[in-house]
Design goal:
The strands form 5 sheets. Strands 2, 3, 5, 6 and 7 form a 5-stranded antiparallel β-sheet that branches. A 4-stranded antiparallel β-sheet has the order 14-13-16-17, with no helix packed on it. A 3-stranded mixed β-sheet has the order 4-1-8, with no helix packed on it. The chain is built from 5 helices and 17 strands. By secondary structure, it is an alpha+beta fold. Strand 11 (250-257) and strand 12 (261-267) form a beta hairpin.
């Protein structure tokens, strides 16, 4: 007869033996149950890798979007263009919109763009006129540039300016037979701080007048840093590459007799051109000043001369003198209206 204690020990021992047996019997099944990638699973993983690659490529693309309008009760279908201006190529992207479509979205590579829309011969775009509120006081139709970085979505590029003067926007790129050789603008120039139209013209072998004309600039002294200018293909009428100056014309004040005369020496003026001489109040740069004489720059482009101070300016503390040719070259300086020794 087993005692109660012996029976308890036997039961515990038997339970341990059964548990160990179950562990070793079930262990192979657990090993076999470890997941092994089937061909279907490997295919799914490969597809996922491909999708990942495509996603990384697509993430380089940026998007430009905004509102559409048209000067009528209904919005017709139109072609929206994003013309890239920072890579020196005739690169553009376009989409066709439907009737009464009030917004657009166009995918582009990273870069700097002008964005506009054509309907027939009419063109509208994104300009300063749009961003200042389309009010009667808004008269600046200069196109805004749109910078797009990888993965960017640039919103509120609203194509609402259908009232910009002719030539404000580039010609329709998809109808230009030779967009690289004969564009409206051979290049676009971003104005740097301190630049003038004259200095910009020197970079492109032009005078300031065709640049001002191409960009509808009525006052050549009113340009601002960051402004994007169209550089036209034309060359200045009446000048040639042989006669254009390659340096900035300067005026040096060499002597003054108060309220009577001023003497100057010029340097780097284009040769054999006639310059109109004007004087005016300080801070006017001599623009629309009083005409005091006309001077020919001579064969060397540098000369010394003396001009009388006009009666209207006598008594002023400081006076500006300006020389400007009909072909667009100009230079100015100022002097104290005090007799020098």
């Amino acid at each position: 007869m087993f005692s109660k204690l012996s029976l308890s020990v036997f039961s515990i021992t038997l339970s341990l033996i059964l548990a160990l047996a179950a562990f070793f019997l079930l262990q192979p099944a657990l090993v076999k149950a470890e997941p092994i990638a089937s061909p279907e699973l490997r295919s799914t993983r490969d597809q996922a890798a491909n999708h990942s690659t495509l996603f990384n490529q697509t993430s380089r693309i940026g998007t430009i979007s905004g509102q559409l309008s048209f000067p009528s009760e209904r919005i017709p279908s139109m072609t929206v263009f994003a013309l890239r201006i920072d890579n020196g190529l005739s690169t553009y992207y376009s989409i066709q919109t439907g009737k009464n479509q009030f917004s657009y979205s166009i995918d582009v590579d990273p870069g700097v763009y002008l964005v506009f829309a054509y309907h027939g011969d009419l063109v509208g775009g994104y300009t300063r006129y749009v961003t200042c509120g389309l009010g009667t006081d808004c008269s600046d139709h200069i196109p805004h540039q749109v910078a797009v970085e990888s993965g960017d979505t640039i919103r509120n590029i609203d194509l609402l300016d259908w009232y910009a003067p002719r030539g404000t926007f580039p010609a329709r790129p998809d109808q230009s037979p030779k967009p690289v050789e004969t564009p409206v603008c051979i290049s676009y120039h971003r104005v740097a701080w301190g630049e003038t139209l004259y200095k910009i013209g020197l970079q492109y072998n032009l005078t300031w007048k065709p640049i001002a004309s191409a960009n509808k600039i009525t006052n050549p002294n009113l340009i601002y840093a960051g402004q994007v200018l169209c550089i036209p293909r034309t060359t200045p009428q009446g000048t040639s590459s042989e006669t254009r100056s390659t340096s900035i014309p300067t005026i040096d004040i060499t002597g003054v007799i108060r309220n009577k005369q001023v003497s100057i020496t010029t340097n780097n003026f284009p040769p054999n051109q006639t310059f109109k001489v004007t004087m005016g109040k300080m801070f006017t740069q001599g623009v629309a000043g009083i005409v005091v004489d006309e001077t020919n720059s001579g064969s060397g482009g540098s000369f010394k001369t003396t001009y009388a101070i006009p009666k209207q300016l006598r008594g002023l503390d400081r006076i500006v003198i300006r020389l400007e040719s009909s072909s667009g070259y100009y230079s100015y300086n100022w002097f104290y209206n005090n007799t020098t020794q």
